[in-house]
Each structure stands twice: as C-alpha cells, then as structure tokens.
Specification:
The complex is a heterodimer of chains A (about 900) and B (about 140). By secondary structure, chain A is of the alpha/beta class. Chain A has 6 domains: about 200 residues, 3-Layer(bba) Sandwich (FAD/NAD(P)-binding domain), CATH 3.50.50.60; about 160 residues, FAD/NAD(P)-binding domain (3-Layer(bba) Sandwich), CATH 3.50.50; about 80 residues, Enolase-like, domain 1 (2-Layer Sandwich); about 70 residues, Orthogonal Bundle (Arc Repressor Mutant, subunit A); about 55 residues, no CATH class; about 150 residues, 2-Layer Sandwich (Sulfite Reductase Hemoprotein, domain 1), CATH 3.30.413. Helices cover about 30% and strands about 20% of the residues of chain A. In chain A, the strands form 12 sheets. Chain A has a 6-stranded mixed sheet. In chain A, strands 11-18-12-13-14 form a 5-stranded parallel sheet, with helices on one face. A 5-stranded antiparallel sheet of chain A has the order 24-25-28-27-26. Chain A starts with 12 loop residues before the first helix and ends in a 32-residue tail after the last helix. By secondary structure, chain B is mostly beta strands. Chain B has 1 helix and 12 strands. In chain B, the strands form 3 sheets. Chain B has a 5-stranded antiparallel sheet, with no helix packed on it. In chain B, a hairpin with a 3-residue loop joins strand 7 and strand 8. Classes of the chains: A alpha/beta (about 900), B mainly beta (about 140). At the A-B interface, helix 16, helix 20 and helix 21 of A face strand 2, strand 4, strand 7 and strand 8 of B.
Chain lengths: ~900, ~140
C-alpha cells in the first residue's frame, strides 16, 4: 500500500467520498503555496467527472498512476460518474438511473481518489498552479486535466432563456441526469411537447417523451433530420420513419419566440441546480411558463412543455480564465496538452485537436489513452492523430450508420446509391480515388461493419461497387471463400489448400468434420476451422449435410456433454469400455473418443474411476510428451517458476547421465529435458526426485509468476507466493483443455496474466484482479475480468470454483478462450462470484475431491502400471534426426 | 531379407533400445520396407500374450522388420508395421479400437485389418498373427 494518510482509506471512504466537506483535499487560498505533494506523489487535479475525465483517470490507474499521483476529481454534478449517452434510455424507461452509473463512490475511494462531487471549479491560476472552487476554496495541482465536456446550446430565441441563462417553466435542456429527472417529473399528466432540434439527441428525446403519452412535435430549423449526418434524401426517409411512430416533424421551422404565461401553477420543485444554464427544472424561476411556440411565419403551436436539443457547446470557461488558447474548444497538441501549458491536459468534448472537436465517444477513448500514456510516462511518444468518426445507432427505432461525407463534394467523386422508400431503406457510398470517403445506411445496416473497416483503414474496394451495399447471393463470409485462389493455403499446420478442400467436397463429402478428417484441414492448431467450414459450405453449394455430431462430446457416443455426464452418473459407468458398451451405437468402441472419455470419467468419478490404460493417449500412459522421433520430453514441476540450486543441480546431473540432447527453458517458466528415451523415463524421474509438471496432458499445467513484491520495486502483491500456492493446489487436475495460469505482481503484466486461462493481477491496495479466458497461442485473446477480490484466499477459492465449472461444462478440447465467450462472462460471474445458481459450494466440494484424489503419476516409476509400460515402440528405426544442441 | 528357419525367435523391442541414438541406417526407409516384408511365409514366435496390455500394442523386431502387435479388447490380435509412413511415428503408441489405430504424432488413421489410411496417408503393411495354444503370439512374415 502506498496510500498516504491524507487520502481516504478503503475502509472509511465509502461513505465519505460523495460528501467530503470543502476542507478535505482543498485548502484555503493562503495555504495553497508551499504545500508539498502528497506522499511524494504529484497532485493531479481532474476538472470534470464525466465520461472523458473518468476514462482518462481509469487509463492512468491502469498504468500504475495511483503510485505517481494523488488524484482529486471535481464534478459539477453531485453524483458519481454516469454514462451520458444512455440518458435517452433513462428518459424512455429502457434503463434505470442505477444502470447508467459507471463508477460508484466506493470505486473512487478504493482507488484512493478524492471525489468532490457538486463542487464547480470556477477559476484557474496557472502561475500559482491552483484551481478555484465556487465557494472560494482553492486546490493546488502539479498536473491538471480539464475534462469539462459540453453544455446544451440554448438558441437565441426570444423567451427561451432569461438573461442569466435560466430557463422558464416547462422548458428543459437535455444534458444531465437532473434534466432527465425534471423532464420525467414534469411530463406526467401533460399532453403535448415540442422538441427544438432534429438531430440525434432531439429525436431520442422525442421518442422518450412519447413514453409518457405525450403528443410530440420536433421543431427542426434545418431542412433535414440529422442534418449533420444525412443528406436530404436520407433525411426524408428517416422523417417518414419517425412520423410513422406518431411524431410530427416541422422541418425548416424557424421559431420566432416562446409563448409564455404567468406562472400560476404553484408547482413545487426543488431548484438544486441554481443558475446552471441548461438546468431546467420545470419551475418558472420567475420567467413565466412556456405554453407554446410562435414561428417566423406567424403560425403557432401550443404545447405544455419544450425540450431544447439544439446541439452542444464545449465548456471552455476554465480555459479562458486560465489564459489558454481557446477556439471552439481548448486547443491541444498531439499529447492532449494545452498548447500553452505542458502541465495541463485537455480531453473530451472540450478539447480541440487539429481543428476538430469531437462529440462522439470513440475519439474520446483514444484521447484518454494517449493522455494516460503520456502523463504516466508509460510512453512519452504517445500521440493522438485525430479520429475518423463513424456512427452506428438506432434513432427512434430506425437503424442508422453514417461515416465521413454525406454528399459528394467533387465532380469526380463516385456515388453509389440505393433507395427503397417504401421499406425505409437508404444506402449510399461515396468513393474518391478508389477509397471510401463516406457512407450512409438507413433502415438496413447489415453492411456497416465492413464499410466502417474500409472507411477507417482505406481498404481497397471491390470493382463491383454494389457489393459495398449488398451481400449478393451469399452471406458475406462466403464471398471470402469464393474469392480465394484455389492454391491458397487454408490450413497452415497441415498445408491444405482451398483446392484440396473443394475437391474433397466435390468428391462427395458433404459434412464439415468429414472434410476435415479426409483432408486434415483444421486438424492442427484449429485456428482455420471457421474458414474450412465456410469453404465447405461454399463448395457444397448449399448442400452441406447437417452434422449431427457437432454437439456430441465425443464422436463415438451420440450425446452432448450434459446428457453424457448424466447417463454416466445414472448408469454408474466407471470405465471407458463400460461407456461404449452402454451408450455407443451397437456398443462399438471408438479410438478417437477414448481420451476424452477418460478425462470426463476422471472428472466425474475422481478416485473411483476405473482406469483402463488403453483409454489414455500415449502421453498419459507414460506421463511425458511424445516428440517427433518417438522420444519424450520431461518437465518436472517447478511451481510458480521458483526453483533452487539443489533442484537445478539434480536436473543438470540427469541431463548428463541420460545424454539428454536438449535442455530448454519453457515459456511456462520450467525446464524441459527433451529427447528422453521412453525406457529411461522411470529412472529419470527417480533421479530428478521431483513431481511431474504435467507438461503433456489436457490438464492444469503451470502458473507463471513475475518476481513479485519481495524484490521488484514495482510489485504491489506477492505474486510468486500466490502462484506457487495455486500451482501446488490445483496442478495436474485433468480438464477438457490444458490450463495455463499466471499471477502478476502489478498491472505491468510481466507474467502475461492477461492472456492466460486464469490470470491474476495484483493491484494497489492489496487487491487482486482475476481474468479468465485469455489466450496467447494460435488464438490471441485478452481475458475477461471475473472479479476483483481483497485476499489471496479469495483468489484461490474463485480460481478453483471456475476451474471446476470449466471442467464440468466445457466441451472436449474447448479451451477457456472459447468456453468463456460461449457461456458469457456475465453468466460465469453470476455462477462463480455471486452463486446465482446455488452451486458454488458443490463446485468447491467437487474440486476438493479431485485434489484429494490426485497422485503424482511419476510415482509409477516404482511399479509400472502395465506390462512393458516403458518399452520403446520404435526399436530399430532411425527417425528424422533431431540435432543435439 | 529374413528368410530364416520356419520358426524364428523375435527380439522384444526394449532389448534393442530405441532409435534416438542408433546410428545404423537399418530400416530408415520405412516406406520401402513394406514390400520387402511380404512373401517369405516364416512363422515367428514373438512372446506371450500377457506382455501386451488389453487395448494396447507392443513392438517386436523381427529380423530387420519392426512389427506392432495390437491386443484388442476381446483379445483379437492385429499385427501391422510399427512405423507410420507419414512421418515415422510409433504406431504402437497410438490409440486403437476394434477397427483402427490413430498415430500419436499427427493423428493419421489406419485400418488394422487392411492397412489403408482413412486420413490420406500411404497404407501400412498388415501381417497374419495368431495366439498359439500355449499363449504365445505367432506372426507370419
């Protein structure tokens, strides 16, 4: 722990975080100077508690910024941090307020962050390096992040706002959770509403207000809905879709004034937001109450409430007060710093980078990452180069995807357009110099993913431009299969070309596994399986025979895993031959099914399993990994990668005594003796006098660890001790696929825990993150965060529980990187962490049984399990020679 | 090659040691070895049935040949070439059922009755083998 005493501790801060009095972390002006950085860390002040500011803070924490900075966050709104994008869902009743909160007050406390919610920063003095809060207090900083976002733009319409920016009764902005609450509160019992603004936000507000039974009008000063993104034709089609929902659109309507009535309602509301521009509450604030709009042509529209959604404006006041360069936003360099002050960073909607101010979330994430890389020193060369923005969303029930240009600009811009007004479909692409520079999809956005890719990366486009708008004849993936050259290699393990697969299909094989067996495509690492499937489907021309066995646990028994496990338990089948006799068609045994059944029976029965050695793969018969020349590799257990001089000496002696051709350090932090003769295995194990490392089976293999906190100056958790403990407890347990784990002592990920089946990461504050389903082999995948826990004991428990859940539910050879996304991290978390199915105790008990049943297989050196167990199977053959290193 | 007496003695494989450090070129050409093994008709007494665990195989060096003998469940015997023609894998280390053996190196599949591969590898040789009344395995080569 590096948290100092002036930072709220994890135990006490939960309740304090949102209610800290002005004194905590903020000092009166006269004491600002001379205050030393907290605990040797620099003071980082973040102005703005919205999505951009908090994303930046999260990115900073992920780069160990908690050790570098004492962080204080000021938020204008008196809440934690929420997802502003989802406010329209809250208005429409699709999400509750709770669902859109991103970080709870506890999160701030746990990360040692002082949150000053409801404290508006009004001043910046760059020379004194302090910001001023509206109550007069000041907060000193060493580094400052400005993430003040935007506010609603209130158009200069007579009667729409008072001179101080306050809104009359019945008029609302749509920007904050308070706006949302006020609208919902006011809408009850009203009949009509007008939304000023026909952009995305306006349409969402209109749709949301319909939820409350209001008759809704959209007043759009532009001639076209979503004028920013859509051309006139597309806008017209969207308008039809919106009007079908019962919303009246007034395009090109110029509002001359808001009609107000003296407020006699006596409506009771609390005005918490004071003079906040855009903070409408429904209360009149002495300005009267809106009863309608009058347009420039003199016509009138009577309404009960008005919502202003006419765009946003960056909040740049603090930049102006600090004397920073401000144009539309606060101008930044490529490191997201103000061009005037290297200690001030700006991120999000208030930042202007290379002339652009972004209002979408994706660019903001990119900015936050660059900011964090730079401010923490993780990568001082990190640079933001701007974003190409593409949007895909559903607006008022209509799917819309838009990117780049909405209309052609140059005479030689190529435009391809498809319009089907009756179905509400509009598609267009704009191509310049062979590159996609703009696209609009309305009503049918099936092609948006490939268009966004082509737009972002400037990919070459098909000559037949129509293919950009439609999948012609075939689903998209099969176009890829069709376009591949015949001699293109599909399976890079077994060298199988597309032509070979096609020939096999043409030869009459119409099932995917049949083709895979016959050609061996996809039978190596398996990463090309999907492509093989696509080619087979394409080549069979829609006549692929359904492969009933796809869901079977093994090819020889026509049952999926749950049914097979149930039958095994119910019928008390304890050996592989018993399973075949009882459950296989005609009782026929199947060589390819034996290994998987052995694994399953061992998981079900533990030590009561009847072990038939022919049910095992050779590696499991002799507890070593077979090599290309028929020799074996021997990997003793070195738990957590921690060994001793004595062990190393024994390994060295064994290597010399048995002429081991290669001694290699493995990726799993162990030592591999390669090229050991089968007949020498028992003697090698005896001389090593170490347990098996199980580097050969479908089982729990190893736990990689980093140096941990005993020696590493960055370590925040004892990763080596935990890694050793996990490996000692669970090692050797059989499972549907192999299991490789890691424990990192800090988020630097030196032990690669983020790409392991189970990866544990120590984070500051004595806590541990558990990731599952990662992979760093033929398939690369970052693990999903299962849980963050407070003790190594909890890590051990959740790890074991997850392992047992995986053992019982994964398909044969299904690694966690497939299993976890298939089942879903939310479901797994519910079962493992929250015990939603009430099976946690059973899982814990069953894995304990397996642990208790475990016996080191290398003890078979004392007494071979079968006749000639270690007799060589390649007596006289000189095989492809493996060179001696 | 091995045209010896009508009943020859065979060598259990482990008496010869495995191939790793064998410098001898004997048998290196597994693929061409097969045709040479046909037609002499000699019977070789390999060893006792109990030397082979149920469902597994053990290898015997018969003259210059290497033969894997499988003891299938039900005590049926099958004798085939010990070496996979694809990449020299030890077939006796493979998993078998009543019909096929799967090579442990790259999972090529061979019929134990005909030697044909269902996975596209060249065929392997199959040899008559039976159990004598005294419990000895007799191979005809």
């Amino acid at each position: 722990m590096t948290i100092t005493e002036n930072v709220p501790g994890t135990s006490t801060a939960a309740s304090a975080a949102s209610t800290v009095p002005a004194s905590a972390g903020v000092v009166p002006a006269q004491r600002a100077h001379g205050r030393t950085p907290a605990g040797g860390r620099e003071r980082l002040v973040v102005v703005g508690n919205g999505m951009a500011g908090m994303r930046a803070v999260e990115e900073i924490l992920a780069r160990h910024g908690g050790d570098l900075f004492d962080i204080t966050v000021f938020g204008d709104e008196p809440y934690g941090n929420y997802n502003r994008i989802l406010l329209s869902n809250v208005l429409a009743g699709a999400d509750t307020e709770d669902e859109i909160f991103l970080n709870t007050p506890e999160w701030y406390a746990e990360n040692g962050i002082r949150l000053r919610a409801g404290a508006r920063v009004t001043g910046l003095d760059r020379y004194a390096r302090v910001v001023t809060i509206e109550d007069g207090a000041v907060a000193p900083y060493d580094k400052l992040i400005i993430a003040t976002g935007s506010r609603s733009f209130i158009p200069p319409i007579k009667g729409l706002a008072g001179p101080d920016g306050r809104l009359p009764g019945g008029v609302f902005a749509f920007r904050t959770i308070d706006d949302c609450r006020a609208m919902i509160g006011f809408a009850e019992g009203r009949r009509t509403a007008a939304v000023i603004g026909g952009g995305l936000l306006g349409l969402e507000a209109a749709r949301g207000l319909q939820t409350y039974g209001l008759e809704v009008h959209v007043i759009d000063a532009a001639p076209t809905l979503m004028n920013q993104q859509l051309c006139a034709e597309a806008g017209g089609i969207l308008r039809r879709g919106v009007e079908e929902l019962g919303i009246t659109v007034h395009p090109g309507a110029r509002t001359a004034q808001i009609l107000l009535a003296d407020d006699e309602t006596g409506h009771e509301t609390d005005d918490q937001t004071g003079g906040d521009a855009g903070g409408g509450t429904g209360e009149s604030a002495g300005l009267g109450r809106a009863v309608g709009l009058e347009f420039a042509d003199g016509s009138r529209l009577d309404v009960d409430m008005i919502v202003v959604a006419a765009g946003i404006r960056p909040n740049v006041d603090i930049g102006l007060r600090g004397g920073l360069t401000v144009e539309r936003g606060i101008v930044t360099d490529d490191q997201m710093r103000s061009v005037d002050d290297p200690d001030i960073y700006v991120v999000g909607e208030c930042a202007q980078h290379r002339g652009q101010v972004y209002g979408l979330v994706a660019p903001l994430w990119e900015q936050a990452t660059v900011l964090a890389e730079h401010i923490t020193g993780s990568d001082l060369d990190a640079a933001y180069h701007g974003s190409k923005t593409a949007t895909k969303l559903k607006v008022a029930g209509v799917a819309v995807a838009a990117m780049g240009l909405k209309d052609a600009e140059h005479p030689d811009d190529e435009v391809v357009r498809f319009v089907e007004p009756r179905r509400g479909v509009y598609k267009s692409v704009i191509i310049r110099d062979g590159k996609l520079v703009g696209a609009t999809l309305l009503g049918d956005t099936a092609k948006s993913a490939s268009l966004i890719q082509a737009f972002d990366n400037g990919l070459p486009l098909p000559d037949e431009r129509l293919q950009l708008l439609f999948d012609i004849g075939l689903p998209a993936a099969e176009v890829g299969a069709a376009e591949m050259a015949d001699d293109a290699q599909v399976c890079n393990c077994n060298g199988v070309s597309k032509g070979k697969i096609v020939a096999c299909v043409k030869g009459g094989m119409k099932t995917v596994p049949g083709v895979m067996n016959a050609t061996r495509a996809g039978k190596g690492c398996g990463s090309c399986k999907l492509l093989v499937k696509e080619i087979v489907e394409w080549a069979a021309d829609g006549e692929v025979e359904e492969d009933l066995s796809a869901n079977w646990y093994v090819p020889g028994v026509p049952l999926d895993k749950p049914a097979l496990m149930a039958a095994v338990r119910e019928r008390n089948l304890r050996s592989v031959s018993a399973v075949f006799a009882a459950l296989a068609p005609d009782g026929k045994e199947d060589a390819a099914s034996k290994m998987a059944l052995t694994s399953l029976l061992r998981i079900v029965w533990g030590s009561d399993f009847i072990d038939e050695r022919d049910g095992r793969f050779i590696n499991d018969r002799v507890h070593a990994n077979i090599q290309k020349d028929g020799t074996f590799s021997v990997v003793p257990m070195i738990a957590g990668g921690v060994t001793s001089p004595d062990e190393l000496r024994r390994i060295a002696d064994v290597a010399e005594k048995y002429d081991v051709p290669m001694v290699k350090i493995t990726g799993g932090q162990r030592i591999d003796l390669l090229g050991v003769r089968k007949e020498d295995l028992p003697k090698v194990w005896a001389d090593l006098d170490m347990p098996s490392g199980h580097a050969y089976g479908k089982s729990f293999r190893t736990v990689k660890t980093c140096v941990g906190k005993d020696f590493c100056r960055f370590g925040v958790g004892d990763s080596t001790a935990l890694g050793v403990a996990i490996e000692q407890r669970y090692h050797g347990l059989e499972s549907p696929g192999k299991l490789k784990l890691a424990v990192n002592g800090c988020p630097r990920n030196c032990a690669e825990g983020l790409i392991k089946d189970v990866g544990v990461v120590a984070i500051d504050g004595g806590r541990w993150e558990i990731y599952i389903g990662g992979a760093g082999g033929a398939h690369v995948r970052k693990g999903d965060l299962l849980a963050t826990v407070g003790s190594p004991e909890e890590v051990m428990m959740l790890t074991g529980r997850f392992l047992q859940y995986y053992r019982e539910n994964a398909k044969w050879l299904e690694r966690t990187y497939t299993f976890v996304p298939r089942v879903g991290i939310e479901k797994i978390r519910a079962v493992i962490v929250d015990d939603a199915e009430g099976i946690a105790a059973d899982l814990d008990a069953r894995i304990q049984e397996s642990i208790d049943a475990y016996v080191d297989p290398w003890l078979e050196r004392e007494q071979p399990a079968t006749a000639g167990q270690f007799r060589t199977s390649l007596p006289l053959i000189t095989l492809p020679q493996v060179p001696v290193r | 090659m091995s045209a010896q007496s009508s009943v020859a003695t065979a060598t259990p494989a482990d008496a010869s040691g495995s191939g790793r450090d064998k410098g001898s070129p004997v048998g290196t050409e597994a693929k061409s070895a097969r045709p040479a093994l046909t037609g002499t008709g000699a019977v070789h007494r390999l060893g006792l049935l109990r030397e082979i665990p149920v469902g597994e195989a053990r290898v015997y060096a018969v003259g210059d040949a290497q033969i894997a003998v499988f003891r299938l469940r039900g005590d049926t015997l099958r004798a085939v070439d010990a070496v996979c023609p694809h990449a020299g894998g030890p077939l006796a280390d493979g998993q078998a059922d009543a019909g096929v053996v799967i090579c442990p190196l790259h999972a090529h599949v061979f019929s134990l009755a005909t030697g044909e591969s269902t996975s596209g590898a060249p065929p392997i040789g199959c040899y008559p083998v039976r159990l004598a009344v005294d419990g000895t395995i007799e191979l005809t080569l």
